[in-house]
Amino acid sequence: MPTILITGANRGIGLDVARAYAADGWRVIAANRTPFAAEAAAMLGSVVEEIPYDALDDAATDDLAKRLRGRPVDVLFCAAELRGGERLKPDVITRDVWRPIMLTNAYAPLRLASLLEPNLRAGSGKVLAAISRHASTLATDGHASDFAYRASRAALNQLWRTLSVEWRDWGCKALLLCPDSMQPPQGATPGFPTRSDAVASLRTLIASVSLEQSGQHWSADGHVLPW
To answer: Which H or E element spans position 199?
Structure first.
């Protein structure tokens, strides 16, 4: 039975991905800061193992790695993220706003990946995936505000691209995945993917992207996003 570890699996895209893999017979390790709601836990069933994980707590990250020592992980899927200060002007963005966003969205995934490198090496999939967003791209997204979040996602992209080079020799595929299509919806735009469509697309990418494509940023409709 293949294994996927998902951070932030208790809500949003993380929960949807956990549900899809569990339904397909994968063993799902859910690394959550907030435990599953009772309804979600019942729906996911016994193939899902929940382990406490706080991206801002190095001790919790160390404990997660210790619990998983010696266990192969085929896919590490980093879905946990933090937003904040979306409408703040640059002159009022303080360290207190900046620090948790950058630590959660950039530092924490890199630290977790580094600690779980032996698990990924032992797995057959060797996929290191993380949710990124259109907000991270310099080429396509020119909207105002959201300074810290955008910077944190751009930082994650660079870290994953570096890992794609650093770990290429043992076959690791580092994927940046945007759960949205290339174009944002305008009302009820025909063809805009639903959440289930996006999850299916991301799963297809995880299963099919080659080592030569490692380090790229993909949208839910299968396009490579420009940097």
So the answer is: helix 195-208
pLDDT score of 104: 97
> At 193, is the pLDDT very low, low, confident or very high (cuts 50, 70, 90)?
low
CATH 2.60.40.770 fits 3-218, yes or no: no
Amino acid present at 36: F
Rounded Cα gap, residues 174 and 110, in angstroms: 11
- Please name the residue that has the structure tokens 């160390």: 62
Q: Indicate the pTM of the whole model.
A: 0.91
Does residue 109 sit in helix, strand or coil?
helix
The CA distance from 36 to 29, in Å, is 12
Q: How far apart are CA 140 and CA 62, in angstroms?
A: 37
| CA dihedral over 192, 4, 83, 216, signed as positive or negative | negative
CA atoms within 13 A on the CB side of 130: 34
- What would the two tokens of residue 71 be? 């266990």
9-52 pLDDT, tens digit per residue, is 999 999 999 999 999 999 999 999 999 999 998 889 888 999 99
Domain limits, the chain:
3-218
Find out whether 215 and 160 touch, Cβ atoms under 8 Å: yes
Is the distance from CB of 163 to CB of 106 less than 8 angstroms?
no
Place of tokens 């009772």: 38
Site of tokens 């896919």: 75
Describe the chain by its helix, strand, coil percentages, rounded to 5. Answer: 45, 15, 40
Burial of 130 (0-12, 13-18, 19+ CB in 10 A): buried
